[in-house]
Amino acid sequence: MELPPWLCGLWALLLCVASCGNTAPTETQPPVTNLSVSVENLCTVIWTWNPPEGASPNCSLWYFSHFGNKQDKQIAPETHRSKEVPLNEKICLQVGSQCSANESDNPSTLVEKCISPPEGDPESAVTELQCVWHNLSYMKCTWLPGRNTSPDTNYTLYYWHSSLGKILQCENIYREGQHSTCSFTLTKLKDPSVDQYSVQVMVKDDAGKIRPSFNIVPLTSHVQPDPPHIKNISFQNGVLYVLGKNPQNFARTCLSYQVEVNNSQTEAHFIFSDEKLMCDNSEIEGNLEGTICFRVPGVPPDTVNTVRMRVKTNTFCYEDNQLWSNWSPAMTIGKKTDATLYTTMLLIIPIIVAGAIIVLLLYLKRLKIIIFPPIPDPGKIFKEMFGDQNDDTLHWKKYDIYEKQTKEETDSVVLIENLKRTSQ
Ligand SMILES: *[C@@H]1O[C@H](CO)[C@@H](O)[C@H](O)[C@H]1NC(C)=O
Ligand SMILES: *[C@@H]1O[C@H](CO)[C@@H](O)[C@H](O)[C@H]1NC(C)=O
Ligand SMILES: *[C@@H]1O[C@H](CO)[C@@H](O)[C@H](O)[C@H]1NC(C)=O
Ligand SMILES: *[C@@H]1O[C@H](CO)[C@@H](O)[C@H](O)[C@H]1NC(C)=O
Ligand SMILES: *[C@@H]1O[C@H](CO)[C@@H](O)[C@H](O)[C@H]1NC(C)=O
Ligand SMILES: *[C@@H]1O[C@H](CO)[C@@H](O)[C@H](O)[C@H]1NC(C)=O
Ligand SMILES: *[C@@H]1O[C@H](CO)[C@@H](O)[C@H](O)[C@H]1NC(C)=O
């Protein structure tokens, strides 16, 4: 039987359709529907979608999703996905459905939905928006103005975290040079089971002229403790013992320590941060809770040593270990030069020296006499012989002698004459 060529073609097509269906048992699903995106709080972005239309009844639906650039792939039965996103950049989610939780299952065609940053000139948004959680008691955020901003821009900072329930505005924004700063109270979490806990922060201006800027601050990092305090330092068997008090709110195991020792005599500057230097509680008498003890070898005793210490969070309890606390107040051990004594000495010494010089000048002549005995000075004698002052005397003496001699001679002449007269 001869079939017309067009019918043959149709037959082939039908065969193909049938065989294609048979050879692909992992039948690709229809795509999800009604994918939409919304923002809650400051920057909790929520994507929602509906199940695909016309899905196989035998299929237990799972949804495969990832963010743009194939990040954070996830397969879940829920028809929504959320993420805290600093909305400074566009972010997209792609979603597809599949019939199992198996990663190698072929999902349906992926549907994409994006959210764009708020409108406005990106150059107007504030930059370097950073926050540090101080002492687990307050959060301090700083930022720099954007490039296209007028200098009298009035900024507002909003913040949100899960235990607040609503968005709050930060009071008391102030400027420190180029930086603007605002701090708000944020105490330690009562529910430590929430580990994905963070604070959402947004900075914009009152007039709405700049583009809002966002930041998400994880509370497992960016923590700066208060400085510790040194309670006592002492030398025991030639080893320097430093006793410190932990800052409040922090357990000893969550902190790394640094001890600085400056020796005033050798001008040496040591920094110790070795955990091995920590001493047992038994090594120091009367050790109390919250006290930390260090034994620092190699510090010369009998000299003045100045000791300070500081702490930072460690990776046992926190995600970063970058922020050192300030230094504790310094404590000095050794023979201290009293500050008042030192200043008095500074004042008294020149006075004594000046007095001594005056006395020295006054008695210089006498001293000269003592130092240089007066006799062996031929110049002086020479000067005395021919000097003006003594000339007359000398002359007088000379004449005197001469006169005396003449007188004597005269006398003798007179005497002789007298004798002659008497003899005559
Ligand atoms: C998508 O949304 C529209 C309107 O909200 C609704 O009528 C429709 O049923 C939705 N589609 C699915 C598959 O749920
Ligand atoms: C669903 O699965 C059952 C059992 O595996 C099968 O008999 C039935 O034909 C399937 N239905 C469809 C629509 O694939
Ligand atoms: C996922 O599917 C692959 C092949 O499609 C199969 O080899 C693997 O065992 C499956 N894994 C699970 C957990 O079902
Ligand atoms: C650190 O936190 C504790 C307890 O929350 C508080 O008592 C202390 O005053 C705080 N320190 C500073 C410097 O604010
Ligand atoms: C900022 O506030 C001050 C005082 O309220 C006002 O004089 C100034 O014009 C404001 N700046 C802008 C850019 O609105
Ligand atoms: C410091 O420790 C030494 C040695 O334990 C002790 O003699 C001294 O009294 C302590 N000083 C203070 C102020 O606690
Ligand atoms: C210790 O010496 C270093 C380096 O000379 C100096 O930076 C530091 O301020 C000194 N510490 C104290 C407490 O004076």
UniProtKB/TrEMBL annotation:
The chain crosses the membrane at residues 341-364. It is found in: Membrane. Keywords: Disulfide bond, Glycoprotein, Membrane, Receptor, Repeat, Signal, Transmembrane, Transmembrane helix. It comes from the Eukaryota. It is a single-pass type I membrane protein. It holds the Pfam family IL6Ra-bind. Residues 125-226 form the Fibronectin type-III domain. Coiled coil: none annotated. SUPFAM superfamilies: Fibronectin type III. One of its GO terms (molecular function) is cytokine receptor activity. Residues 1-23 form the signal peptide. GO terms for cellular component: external side of plasma membrane. Interleukin-13 receptor is a complex of IL4R, IL13RA1, and possibly other components. Interacts with TRAF3IP1. Interacts with IL4. Binds with low affinity to interleukin-13 (IL13). Together with IL4RA can form a functional receptor for IL13. Also serves as an alternate accessory protein to the common cytokine receptor gamma chain for interleukin-4 (IL4) signaling, but cannot replace the function of IL2RG in allowing enhanced interleukin-2 (IL2) binding activity. Belongs to the type I cytokine receptor family. Type 5 subfamily. This is Interleukin-13 receptor subunit alpha-1. It comes from Phyllostomus discolor. The gene is IL13RA1.
